[in-house]
Amino acid sequence: MSEAKTPTPTPPGDTYKGWVFKWTNYIKGYQRRWFVLSNGLLSYYRTQAEMGHTCRGTINLATATITVDDACNFVISNGGAQTYHLKASCEVERQRWITALELAKAKAVRMQAESDDSGDDFPSSSPRITQGGGSQNSEVQSALRTLSNKVEDLSTCNDLISKHGSALQRSLAELDGLRLTGEAGDKIRQVTERATLFRITSNAMINACRDFLTLAQTHSKRWQKALQAEREQRVRLEETLEQLAKQHNHLERAFRGAAQANASPDNKGAAGPGKGEASDEDDDNEFFDAMEEAPEFITVPADPQFHKRSSSNISGLNSELCADDQSLNEEPLAMNQESPSQELVPLKKRRTRIPDKPNYSLNLWSIMKNCIGKELSKIPMPVNFNEPISMLQRLSEDLEYHELLDKAAKCQNSLEQMCYVAAFAVSAYSTTVYRTGKPFNPLLGETYELDRKRESGYRSLCEQVSHHPPAAAHHAISDRGWTLRQEITVASKFRGKYLSIMPLGTIHAVFEKSNNHYTWKKVNTTVHNIIVGKLWIDQSGEIDVVNHTTGDRCHLKFAPYSYFSRDVARKVTGVVMDKDGKAHYVLSGTWDEKMEFSKVMQSSRGGENGTEGKQKTVYQTLKARELWRRNPLPDGAETMYYFTALALTLNEPEEGVAPTDSRRRPDQRLMEEGRWDEANAEKQRLEEKQRTARREREREAASQRTSSQSEEG
Question: What is the pTM of this model?
Answer without folding.
Answer: 0.55
